[in-house]
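Schema walkthrough. Field components (list of strings):
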Amino acid sequence: MNLLLLHPEDFEAPPSRGQEQRARVTGRRLEHVLRVHRAGVGDELRVGLVGGAIGQGRVLELSPRELALAVRLDRDPPPARDLTLVVALPRPLVLKRVLLHATTLGVKRIALIHSRRVEKSYWQSEALTGETLSRQLLLGLEQAGDTVLPDLSLHRRFRPFVEDELSGLLMGRQGFLPDPAATRECPRAVSGPVLLAIGPEGGFIPWEVEKLGQAGLQLVHLGARVLRVEAAVPFAIARLG
Amino acid sequence: MNLLLLHPEDFEAPPSRGQEQRARVTGRRLEHVLRVHRAGVGDELRVGLVGGAIGQGRVLELSPRELALAVRLDRDPPPARDLTLVVALPRPLVLKRVLLHATTLGVKRIALIHSRRVEKSYWQSEALTGETLSRQLLLGLEQAGDTVLPDLSLHRRFRPFVEDELSGLLMGRQGFLPDPAATRECPRAVSGPVLLAIGPEGGFIPWEVEKLGQAGLQLVHLGARVLRVEAAVPFAIARLG
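Field assembly_structure (string):
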């Protein structure tokens, strides 16, 4: 946790930028401050308000029950990455890591989509419940020192997504689909807004690749080595970014 | 598994390039062919000889006990990446993923080192036994369609590593250490041999950063967002590669 994320309800008065204000923290975040930061009274912690500014929090009181902070929020979180990520839903454990890494990398729009090679059971997984999803996104923000949650959308049918929704996501963006069969090399350091689509383990099936191409995605290759989804996401983002 | 890796002892006669030869597979690999590939007699599988060529294997017989293949090895595995990876030993689960991803990415030299922020207990982990290590490396090769295992070395003390061994690893290479405090941006698409050093969660301590810098590593930053080790490895490799 490189940033302690605060929610409006942690504050004694509505949080406002530039003023020193009191906040209280319990639960998982308190645990982390006690066990990992091993903070003491008077220590300064990096803090941020979910959806808002970041700043410093001075430890006023610390017990196994509660942490009280004097918080001053005074600057913007790191800039977002203007990249929309479309990912075929991976298996639950991999999904958790993909969401965490994408959020850490500053992605603010994530669409999880179906594909022939996505097991139907993944859509029933506990990893897709609101609480588990938002936990991974918050962990990603804490890691990045960021406060702005990504928009996350679920698309349980491939065809309506690619025919009706993808064009909206692509508006004003260059879209790229890494594909080992592509002849064009993936460009580096693309300027301007980007959409990146990552297939399931085993790849999108040929019909899906064709539909994604028709919708406007450019097929590009990232070398002879096919990466697992959780490595492909940071690898391709670094390449494009 | 994008490639079925064969060992010399799987072959009826010593394997040789360009000839059709019979090989037998059991255990985990047989399981995978049965459950995931769902191959049948006559199907062609991508195969490779550990440390050798890749090619095709035609299924001659397939039962829950054994797979018999007619193997023809006829081409080289994908080229290696001329990148040496030095990583502060992560916790066991993360180590497994880092080894898998690095191997998939074509890294052929991996040094796991100690650092103040590496918990001593990690050096006693089951993840560091020969069998577990080689399993992760083989999984990485299978994913990449590669056959050449990386060299892996363990360095349980930071100071002897940085003072006596790092200069040898750096010979003829540019070395980079991503550090959020660095003023120089990490270069893109560096040509020639590279060494990449990745710190532990929380980073190398200042004294370690200084020692690594004195040994010849260039401090570079990868943006305001600090990534977890398992994401930092593919991200930084893509950036440099």
